[in-house]
Amino acid sequence: MSCNFPNHVLSLQGPQRKLTVKEVVLLALMKLKFGLPTELIADIFLISKELGSQIFNTWIKFIAKQLRPMIYWPKLSHSLRAYPNLRSTIDCSEIFIARPRDLKIQAFNFSWSDYKKYNTFKFLMGIAPNGMISFLSKTWGGRASDQFITRQSGFLDKVEPRDLILADRAFPLHEDLVKKGATLTILPLSTGIVK
Fold this sequence. Notes:
By secondary structure, the protein is α/β, with parallel strands linked by helices. It folds into 2 domains: 7-69; 86-186, no CATH class. It has helices at residues 7-10, 21-34, 38-45, 49-67, 103-107, 146-152, 155-158, 174-179; strands at residues 86-96, 112-113, 118-127, 133-136, 140-141, 164-167, 183-186. α8 (174-179) links the parallel β6 and β7. The radius of gyration is 20 Å and the shape is globular. The two termini are 30 Å apart. The relative contact order is 0.11.
């Protein structure tokens, strides 16, 4: 897939840029893929920490806008013999974030994850049987439970009768799915989805 940047993005007006468009995209993708601290990213690209943060915040929004159309709810395809009604496999992921510096904010820290023992943002992701991302929630603080995020994210609104949803044991959603006429299968801890 090639991404053609609009002319207005490539010819941004303003002061002389320190990095090329390819370098800023690389910076954003490196931070996303490896979760590198902004200080390290700044050192790698020989820029200030503030500029590195600003570039990442700008380009992550642009990348998200470009990739958002690739996330869609799949039709039921009966593609996996073991799970013929499988619509989506769900799990929550967490992204490490810096601890808030302000002590008052720390006192009400919604981003602390007891599971990771760190400050995180958390989101729900659904994967279709073909491996494509079929659902992506907004982010929540790491304190939010997987069950809470699933119920609040709009995921359950997409579920249809006879759908099968695969998840791990952190998702006690049987009753929610029964109301929709759907089924939840909890995956065993030691095995993958399909052998």
